[in-house]
Structures are given as structure tokens and as C-alpha cells.
Amino acid sequence: MKIxxxxxxxxxxxxxxxxxxxxxxxxNMFVILIPFLVSMAVFTHLAIIRFSLPSNASAQLEDxxxxxxxxxxxxVSQKYLALxxxxxxxxxxxxxxxxxQEADFVKKLTSLRIGRGLGEEVIIASHDTxxxxxxxxxxxxCSEAGFTKIGLSxxxxxxxxxx
Amino acid sequence: MRNKxxxxxxSLSRSEAFRPQLTSLIDVMTILLVFLIKSFSAEGSxxxxxxxxxxxxxxxxxxxxxxxxxxxxxxxxxxLFNDSIVATVRDIDSKDSLSIEPLFERIRAMRGDGRAGxxxxxxxxxxxxxxxxxxxxxxxxxxxCRDFSFLVIHEG
Lengths: 163, 156
Known about the structure:
The structure holds two protein chains of two kinds.
Chain A: H1 24-40, E1 46-51, H2 57-62, E2 72-76, E3 80-85, E4 88-94, H3 102-115, E5 121-126, H4 132-144, E6 149-154
Parallel strand pairs in A: 2-5, 5-6
Antiparallel strand pairs in A: 2-3, 3-4
Chain B: H1 23-38, E1 57-58, E2 71-74, E3 78-81, E4 84-88, H2 89-94, H3 101-112, E5 119-124, H4 130-142, E6 147-154
């Protein structure tokens, strides 16, 4: 009777089969790290924008005897943005469906700031019906144009009528 | 004729235990880990935004990280001072007066105790009309606040 003996003919070659890596420790590390990082992750970055009110703002609305020093003013309304200095209208931009040419606006602001030497202060006078989001956007554009001091004020719908 | 598989000493092969492919899972975990490490913040969030307020977005490079100061929160329904309701937006819109008396009293009381300085943080919903925010600013200014900040969501 022939007895067949099965033996390995040669040592196992690492190139013959795929090398298996034990990933259990890596998975253990991920299971601990990922919940910790999820709890510490910040997905919404909050920031603050500083601004000022015109000097004696509360008094100014009650007593109109004092005249403020003219500064570059951006009047924000539903239909237009107007750049004024005192009682002089310097430029304007139309607003259609809440949208306007931001790049043009920043360019105009920058040229006025540099060309007329208006300093680094700007007042944003917004009409009551303008949404707050638009006011903040205009503040951003003024900041982009190089104005470091931004003031907020009320824009009169009918200047002839007064406040 | 039934086929049989002979291995080793000739016995039938035992069915092996199911081994899931972990390679793709490791790939997902690695990408998630890299993203979360990027979003990691040791400072955490010092300011809590009420759920019903969506702050406006700002791309300004001059926007600064928030710090803890007295906060006036204005949602579409309520006006809160340091997380307690002082007035409703409907009430203040219905009045012609620019001053919000309950808010004025609270700020004055806090400043009188020395618990607050001239700084105030206003967090308002992005879709609020400006006249509501104007009344809040007027009231804060009347109560002695001079250093104003708006809370925004910073992008870019």
C-alpha cells in the first residue's frame, strides 16, 4: 500500500499571498478619537464686528441744535446705495432684488477714501425697512475698502421732512 | 455526481468565519479623522447663540473672535438680555418710542453694580428689519454703552 505523505515542499513565500495587517488596534484608536474630536469640533465660526454710534447719538435724536461734522455716509435703502458727504451726493448704486454690484461699490468707496482724503471713518445710514443682513454686508464692504471706523446711523426716507 | 473538495488529509473544507473588509472602513475613518482634527478647537465656543437667531454672515478680515461681555440677543420674537427675555419684538415695533424700557433698566442695573462696562454685544437675526436693531442700539447707548459689537458668522 502506498502511503502518501503530504509535506510542504518549500518555505512559504511572502510574495505568494497578501500580507494581512491586523487593523484592530487602529480601529480601537479611531473609536476613541473620533467621538472626542466630534465633541470638540467647531463647525460654525463666530466673530464680532465692532462699530460705533455717532457721538451723542441718543442726545442727537432729541436735540437737533448741534450739527455733526460731515463724514462719508453710505445711505442704504431698498432700492439704492448712495454715497454722500454732508449734503453732497457723491455717487450712487442701484439695488435690484436685493442685489447690487459689490465690486463696483467697493471700488467707488476706495477711490473716494483715497481720492478725497476722507479719512478712515464712514457712517452707514440705513433706512428702517432694510434687513439687518444687508447692513452687515455693507459694513463688510466698507471694511474691505479700507475704512477702519464704521458708524451706524439712521437714514431718513424723506430728507426734506427731517427726523 | 456530487463534487467534493479535498484539502490536507482529505476532509471537507470547513466554512470560514465571515471577515468584513476593513480597508474601506479605515479609509473613511482616516478622512473623518483628518477633517475633525482640522475643525478641532481647544477654546470651544464662548458665546452661545440662541436657536432662533441666525446671525448674518461676514467675510470681513477685521472680524475678531468673540469674547464674553453682556449680550443683547434679538430674535424675530423676543429681545433677551444675557439669556433672559426682557421684551417681545412685537411690543417694541408697535411703539413709536426708540427706547426699550425693560432693556434699559436691566443694562443700567448691571452697569450700576459694576458688573458691566461700556461694551455690549448685539446678536440679531439676519432677517430682522433695521428699525428693530436701531431701537436696541439706541437703548444700549442711552444706558451708557459706547463700545458696540455685532455677532456674525465668519466665512472666508
